[in-house]
Design a protein that fits this description.
Distance between the termini: 32 Å
Number of strands: 2
Strand order of the largest sheet: 1-2
Oligomer: single chain
Number of domains: 1
Shape: globular
Strand content: under 5%
Largest sheet: 2 strands, antiparallel
Number of helices: 8
Helix content: 55-70%
């Protein structure tokens, strides 16, 4: 691992250990943040289904683990998935600046929260009801969804 990547990895682990929001923090550590894509045929990063869906899975998992005492994050897997997503975005042609701008955008964060909340509600989760978060978490784990692979039941 090169010095820069090792520094990023260490910084990511330190942030997660310091109590940063486990799943989304892992995504935000390596995918620091949408401008206009450099290539004319490349859609804006916030319209790339794979990127948005992957970040949504992390956001859903993070909300589940924060609200269900019986489910936690698989931190190393989350970090590994975040690194894969970063490589995917860079390989597609998005610049580090575009990624950073996307992840730092208050509007994009609000849009992601809205998508997350809609998914949770559509799957029977009720705010303040830990059992509903746990039920969805166990379902995601059992199905082997991306969200489920980022979680573990105690």
């Amino acid at each position: 691992m090169t010095g820069g990547k090792l520094h990023i990895a260490r910084a990511g682990l330190a942030r997660m250990r310091a109590g940063a929001t486990a799943l989304t923090a892992a995504a935000f550590v390596t995918l620091t943040g949408a401008g206009q894509a450099a290539q004319a045929d490349l859609p804006p990063i916030n319209q790339n289904d794979h990127i948005v869906t992957s970040l949504l899975a992390a956001a859903i998992g993070d909300e589940i683990r924060k609200n269900c005492p019986d489910i936690g994050a698989r931190l190393f897997r989350a970090f590994r998935e975040a690194r894969k997503l970063e490589r995917y975005a860079l390989d597609k042609g998005y610049s580090e600046d575009e990624i950073e701008a996307f992840l730092d955008s208050p509007d994009e964060k609000d849009a992601m929260r809205a998508r997350r909340d809609a998914y949770l509600a559509a799957n029977g989760v009720k705010a303040g009801d830990a059992d509903s978060y746990c039920a969805l978490g166990r379902k995601e784990i059992a199905e082997g969804s991306l969200t489920g692979t980022l979680l573990r039941a105690y």
